[in-house]
Amino acid sequence: MKAVDHIAIAIWSIEEALVLFRDLLGGEFLMGGDDEELGIRTVQLRLSPGVKIELLQPTGNAPSAEIRLRRPHT
C-alpha cells in the first residue's frame, strides 16, 4: 500500500494562504520556491506529524491563470 506524501492546493496568493496554514494552523515551513518552466511558486508546510501540504500559486510567468501540475516519472 502506498502512502500519501502531501496534498497540493492551488491558490491565488501564498501570502494570504499562509495566514491560515502557518499562522492559525501552525504549519512549519519545509521548502519552497519558483518553477519558471511551470510558472508557479510553491511552499510546502508540515501541519502535524505525517500531514504535509503544498501551496501552489501562479506567477507572472504563467502562460495562463490556470496552474498546470506535473510529476516527474520515477
Descriptive report:
This protein is mostly beta strands. It has a domain at 7-55. 15% of the residues lie in helices and 39% in strands. The chain contains 1 helix and 4 strands. The protein has a 4-stranded mixed beta sheet with strand order 1-4-3-2, covered by helices on one side.
Give the key terms.
74 residues; mainly beta; 1 helix
DSSP strand count: 4
Could you report the average pLDDT, rounded to the nearest whole number? 84
Q: What low-confidence regions span 5 or more consecutive residues with pLDDT below 50?
A: none
* Amino-to-carboxy terminus distance: 17 Å
Main sheet characteristics: 4 strands, mixed
Radius of gyration: 13 Å
Proportion in helices:
10-25%
Helix and strand pattern? EHEEE
Strand order of the largest sheet: 1-4-3-2
Shape estimate: globular
Approximate strand percentage = 35-45%
Number of helices: 1
Structural class: mainly beta
In short:
This protein is mostly beta strands and 74 residues long. The chain has one helix at 14-24, and strands at 7-10, 28-35, 40-48, 51-58.
Topology readout:
Blueprint: E1 7-10, H1 14-24, E2 28-35, E3 40-48, E4 51-58
